[in-house]
Design a protein that fits this description.
It is built from 8 helices and 5 strands. It is of the alpha/beta class and 224 residues long. Helix 5 crosses helix 6 and helix 6 runs parallel beside helix 7. It starts with a helix and ends in a 28-residue tail after the last helix. The longest helix has 22 residues. Strands 3-2-1-4-5 form a 5-stranded parallel sheet, sandwiched between helices. It has a single domain, classed as HUPs (Rossmann fold), CATH 3.40.50.620. Strand 1, helix 2 and strand 2 form a beta-alpha-beta unit.
Length: 224
Protein backbone atom coordinates (compact mmCIF):
# COMPACT_ATOMS: atom_id res chain seq x y z
CA UNK A 1 0.00 0.00 0.00
CA UNK A 2 2.84 2.39 0.85
CA UNK A 3 4.50 1.73 -2.50
CA UNK A 4 1.24 2.45 -4.31
CA UNK A 5 0.83 5.74 -2.43
CA UNK A 6 4.39 6.76 -3.24
CA UNK A 7 3.84 5.92 -6.90
CA UNK A 8 0.59 7.90 -7.01
CA UNK A 9 2.28 10.85 -5.30
CA UNK A 10 5.08 10.71 -7.84
CA UNK A 11 2.62 10.70 -10.73
CA UNK A 12 0.75 13.68 -9.26
CA UNK A 13 3.99 15.61 -8.84
CA UNK A 14 5.03 14.91 -12.42
CA UNK A 15 1.60 15.99 -13.69
CA UNK A 16 1.68 19.16 -11.57
CA UNK A 17 5.12 20.16 -12.84
CA UNK A 18 4.10 19.33 -16.39
CA UNK A 19 0.94 21.40 -16.04
CA UNK A 20 2.87 24.45 -14.86
CA UNK A 21 5.50 24.25 -17.60
CA UNK A 22 3.84 22.54 -20.58
CA UNK A 23 3.53 25.75 -22.60
CA UNK A 24 6.91 27.20 -21.65
CA UNK A 25 8.06 28.21 -25.12
CA UNK A 26 9.94 31.48 -25.57
CA UNK A 27 9.89 33.50 -28.76
CA UNK A 28 12.76 32.19 -30.92
CA UNK A 29 15.71 34.56 -31.09
CA UNK A 30 17.31 33.18 -34.23
CA UNK A 31 15.43 31.86 -37.27
CA UNK A 32 18.40 31.86 -39.65
CA UNK A 33 18.41 28.85 -41.93
CA UNK A 34 14.64 28.37 -41.72
CA UNK A 35 12.87 29.07 -44.99
CA UNK A 36 9.37 27.74 -44.26
CA UNK A 37 6.79 28.97 -41.77
CA UNK A 38 3.75 26.89 -40.89
CA UNK A 39 0.66 28.42 -39.28
CA UNK A 40 -1.95 26.28 -37.55
CA UNK A 41 -5.02 28.48 -37.93
CA UNK A 42 -7.51 29.28 -35.19
CA UNK A 43 -6.75 32.94 -34.42
CA UNK A 44 -5.97 35.88 -36.68
CA UNK A 45 -2.89 36.77 -34.63
CA UNK A 46 -1.19 33.55 -35.72
CA UNK A 47 -1.66 34.41 -39.38
CA UNK A 48 -0.41 37.95 -38.77
CA UNK A 49 2.83 36.65 -37.24
CA UNK A 50 3.39 34.39 -40.25
CA UNK A 51 2.79 37.29 -42.64
CA UNK A 52 5.16 39.52 -40.69
CA UNK A 53 7.95 36.94 -40.94
CA UNK A 54 7.31 36.60 -44.67
CA UNK A 55 7.21 40.36 -45.29
CA UNK A 56 10.44 40.81 -43.34
CA UNK A 57 12.01 38.05 -45.48
CA UNK A 58 12.81 36.01 -42.42
CA UNK A 59 11.22 33.07 -44.24
CA UNK A 60 10.70 32.46 -47.96
CA UNK A 61 7.35 30.70 -47.87
CA UNK A 62 4.27 30.51 -45.67
CA UNK A 63 1.78 27.66 -45.37
CA UNK A 64 -1.48 28.21 -43.49
CA UNK A 65 -3.16 24.95 -42.46
CA UNK A 66 -6.86 24.85 -41.67
CA UNK A 67 -7.60 27.97 -43.70
CA UNK A 68 -11.37 27.65 -43.82
CA UNK A 69 -14.44 29.50 -42.50
CA UNK A 70 -14.32 27.61 -39.21
CA UNK A 71 -11.05 29.41 -38.47
CA UNK A 72 -12.43 32.70 -39.74
CA UNK A 73 -10.61 32.53 -43.06
CA UNK A 74 -12.20 32.91 -46.49
CA UNK A 75 -9.71 32.92 -49.34
CA UNK A 76 -11.71 35.45 -51.34
CA UNK A 77 -11.52 37.82 -48.35
CA UNK A 78 -7.97 37.06 -47.21
CA UNK A 79 -6.25 40.03 -48.84
CA UNK A 80 -8.83 42.47 -47.49
CA UNK A 81 -8.72 41.02 -43.98
CA UNK A 82 -4.97 40.69 -43.53
CA UNK A 83 -3.63 43.29 -45.97
CA UNK A 84 -3.27 46.99 -45.31
CA UNK A 85 -5.06 48.12 -48.44
CA UNK A 86 -1.95 49.20 -50.37
CA UNK A 87 -1.78 46.14 -52.62
CA UNK A 88 1.46 44.86 -51.11
CA UNK A 89 -0.20 41.60 -50.16
CA UNK A 90 -0.82 40.56 -53.78
CA UNK A 91 2.80 39.67 -54.71
CA UNK A 92 3.12 37.56 -51.55
CA UNK A 93 -0.10 35.72 -52.31
CA UNK A 94 1.10 34.96 -55.82
CA UNK A 95 4.60 33.79 -54.93
CA UNK A 96 4.95 32.69 -51.39
CA UNK A 97 1.71 31.78 -49.58
CA UNK A 98 -0.24 28.55 -49.86
CA UNK A 99 -3.28 27.37 -47.94
CA UNK A 100 -4.43 24.04 -46.62
CA UNK A 101 -8.22 24.16 -46.45
CA UNK A 102 -9.12 20.63 -45.35
CA UNK A 103 -7.91 20.35 -41.74
CA UNK A 104 -10.45 20.83 -38.95
CA UNK A 105 -8.46 19.73 -35.88
CA UNK A 106 -4.91 19.91 -34.58
CA UNK A 107 -4.18 16.34 -35.66
CA UNK A 108 -5.50 17.13 -39.11
CA UNK A 109 -3.40 20.32 -39.20
CA UNK A 110 -0.34 18.15 -38.66
CA UNK A 111 -1.43 15.64 -41.29
CA UNK A 112 -2.19 18.42 -43.76
CA UNK A 113 1.21 19.98 -43.14
CA UNK A 114 2.98 16.65 -43.69
CA UNK A 115 1.12 16.20 -46.96
CA UNK A 116 2.03 19.68 -48.15
CA UNK A 117 5.71 19.38 -47.24
CA UNK A 118 5.85 16.08 -49.10
CA UNK A 119 4.09 17.56 -52.13
CA UNK A 120 6.54 20.46 -52.18
CA UNK A 121 9.57 18.25 -51.62
CA UNK A 122 10.52 20.17 -48.49
CA UNK A 123 12.34 18.54 -45.62
CA UNK A 124 12.65 21.41 -43.17
CA UNK A 125 13.65 22.96 -40.93
CA UNK A 126 10.38 24.76 -40.28
CA UNK A 127 9.02 27.28 -37.82
CA UNK A 128 5.62 26.39 -36.34
CA UNK A 129 3.35 29.30 -35.44
CA UNK A 130 0.36 28.95 -33.14
CA UNK A 131 -0.88 30.29 -29.82
CA UNK A 132 1.07 29.68 -26.62
CA UNK A 133 -1.44 27.31 -25.04
CA UNK A 134 -1.97 25.43 -28.29
CA UNK A 135 1.73 25.02 -29.07
CA UNK A 136 2.46 21.90 -26.96
CA UNK A 137 -0.37 19.95 -28.61
CA UNK A 138 0.43 21.22 -32.10
CA UNK A 139 4.15 20.52 -31.76
CA UNK A 140 3.56 17.05 -30.31
CA UNK A 141 1.37 16.08 -33.26
CA UNK A 142 3.77 17.51 -35.83
CA UNK A 143 6.86 15.97 -34.23
CA UNK A 144 5.17 12.58 -34.19
CA UNK A 145 4.33 12.78 -37.89
CA UNK A 146 7.60 14.43 -38.93
CA UNK A 147 10.24 12.94 -36.63
CA UNK A 148 13.14 13.89 -38.92
CA UNK A 149 12.12 17.51 -39.42
CA UNK A 150 13.56 20.19 -37.14
CA UNK A 151 10.64 22.21 -35.74
CA UNK A 152 11.14 25.60 -34.10
CA UNK A 153 8.11 26.71 -32.07
CA UNK A 154 6.98 30.34 -32.38
CA UNK A 155 4.33 30.97 -29.73
CA UNK A 156 1.85 33.78 -30.19
CA UNK A 157 0.82 35.33 -26.84
CA UNK A 158 -2.69 34.61 -25.63
CA UNK A 159 -5.26 37.35 -25.39
CA UNK A 160 -5.60 39.09 -22.03
CA UNK A 161 -7.86 37.26 -19.56
CA UNK A 162 -8.51 37.14 -15.84
CA UNK A 163 -6.91 34.50 -13.63
CA UNK A 164 -9.91 32.17 -13.43
CA UNK A 165 -10.41 32.19 -17.21
CA UNK A 166 -6.68 31.65 -17.78
CA UNK A 167 -6.69 28.69 -15.40
CA UNK A 168 -9.80 27.23 -17.04
CA UNK A 169 -8.39 27.49 -20.55
CA UNK A 170 -4.99 26.21 -19.46
CA UNK A 171 -6.56 23.18 -17.79
CA UNK A 172 -8.66 22.37 -20.86
CA UNK A 173 -5.68 22.73 -23.19
CA UNK A 174 -3.50 20.62 -20.91
CA UNK A 175 -6.07 17.83 -20.93
CA UNK A 176 -6.24 18.04 -24.72
CA UNK A 177 -2.46 17.88 -24.84
CA UNK A 178 -2.37 14.71 -22.72
CA UNK A 179 -5.13 13.17 -24.84
CA UNK A 180 -3.23 14.00 -28.03
CA UNK A 181 0.01 12.48 -26.74
CA UNK A 182 -1.86 9.32 -25.76
CA UNK A 183 -3.70 9.19 -29.10
CA UNK A 184 -0.47 9.45 -31.06
CA UNK A 185 0.87 6.35 -29.34
CA UNK A 186 -2.08 4.22 -30.42
CA UNK A 187 -1.96 2.08 -33.58
CA UNK A 188 -3.73 3.91 -36.37
CA UNK A 189 -6.00 0.89 -36.84
CA UNK A 190 -7.75 1.57 -33.51
CA UNK A 191 -8.10 5.33 -33.92
CA UNK A 192 -11.62 6.33 -35.05
CA UNK A 193 -11.70 7.31 -38.70
CA UNK A 194 -13.46 10.59 -37.89
CA UNK A 195 -10.34 11.88 -36.10
CA UNK A 196 -8.36 11.66 -39.33
CA UNK A 197 -11.13 13.22 -41.41
CA UNK A 198 -10.19 13.59 -45.06
CA UNK A 199 -6.71 12.25 -44.29
CA UNK A 200 -7.84 8.78 -43.23
CA UNK A 201 -6.95 7.26 -46.59
CA UNK A 202 -3.87 9.39 -47.17
CA UNK A 203 -3.17 12.86 -48.54
CA UNK A 204 -5.74 14.82 -50.55
CA UNK A 205 -4.78 15.38 -54.18
CA UNK A 206 -3.99 19.02 -53.46
CA UNK A 207 -2.97 19.75 -49.84
CA UNK A 208 -1.81 23.21 -50.89
CA UNK A 209 -3.95 25.84 -52.57
CA UNK A 210 -3.09 29.32 -53.74
CA UNK A 211 -5.16 32.43 -53.18
CA UNK A 212 -6.39 32.29 -56.78
CA UNK A 213 -8.27 29.07 -56.03
CA UNK A 214 -11.30 30.74 -54.48
CA UNK A 215 -13.54 27.68 -54.51
CA UNK A 216 -11.78 26.13 -51.52
CA UNK A 217 -13.01 28.94 -49.27
CA UNK A 218 -16.64 27.91 -49.63
CA UNK A 219 -16.36 24.70 -47.62
CA UNK A 220 -18.64 24.42 -44.58
CA UNK A 221 -16.87 24.39 -41.19
CA UNK A 222 -17.08 21.28 -39.00
CA UNK A 223 -14.42 21.29 -36.28
CA UNK A 224 -14.49 18.37 -33.88
Amino acid sequence: MVIIRIALAGILIVLAVSFLDFDGYDKPKDLRGIETAIVFSGADERVQVGLELLKARVVKRLYISGANPNAGIWLNDFEKKFGNGDGNMRPLLECCIQFGTVADTTLQNALETRCWLGQQGLGGPIVLITSALHMPRARAALRHLLPLVAITPYSVPEERMNTSEWLRRRTIEYMKYLATVALLELPSSVVPEVLYGAFYSGCPLSPGRTHSDQSSSLRSPKRI
